[in-house]
């Protein structure tokens, strides 16, 4: 990130005025296709897709040198079962049964990859049917993914090593029209009751072999594999969607509190128990979110301390780059300022936190005060 991009980003967030980044941009009428790596920079991606929080697709030229595309796939473009068996056959993997709905997910079991590949081969030979149902290996999606938004409102990318997928995208807020009378989201947005209504996915994308789909923060989506497919996926949070993550966690706690509200007056440490339940359901609670912020904040502060104010225009020799580091510190400070005044966070026992949240916030604000002004 150069200084001009940082100025652009800071101006973008000042313009939000407390609104979530994921809900301020109009829905695009199409998904952009990025064809040539040489003519597309990280700055282009940052400005055009991360900040406005909209999806895009990268061509197979971006992944043509990946080892997985060379070794996991046969010359005809199919999964190379022999290679996978030789290198990963004894690995125990989680497998979900797509034909069985368990709440808004699928029941899972564990098996060696070699057993799963035996099933997969038989599934193909039986014209894509099996008495065991349609099973898929975690992270190698072999059929449909239930309707969802990515964990903690993270960004994600998904690359097809081989095969083709069809994506259905709903921008943040669009999913609200799909909720049932109990507030639940549909398991499958392509079910007849939705196809027959006026509610249709705003964006549809067919992803070819080698292509990468960028999934923005908070966009609900559903994926159908159109043929035998192996994909690699990754989730991440950065300064652009950190506020989305914090807002999501507040919503998760509120949902827990509503579910157990009838026991509030009779349950000692009710607020603490809500945090425990939240962690069980969501994988993280407010204490762990602070620890997450702390780890990232301290790494950014350490980088800033290694240089002097007059060196902020130097080259990008510090990993993320100095301008990106300052941008991250600014975003962490804004979110942490919201955390420390949150009434539910104030009920968390922070006596053993080092540093204390208020002290960490002061460190971030002091670091920003010593950097070059925009």
From TrEMBL:
Signal peptide region: none
Pfam families per UniProt: JmjC
Protein name per Swiss-Prot or TrEMBL: Jumonji domain-containing protein 4
Family per similarity comment: Belongs to the JMJD6 family.
One GO cellular component term noted in the UniProt record for this chain: cytoplasm
Domain JmjC: 100-253
GO biological process: positive regulation of translational termination
Catalysed conversion reaction: L-lysyl-[protein] + 2-oxoglutarate + O2 = 4-hydroxy-L-lysyl-[protein] + succinate + CO2
GO molecular function terms attached to this record: 2-oxoglutarate-dependent dioxygenase activity; sequence-specific DNA binding
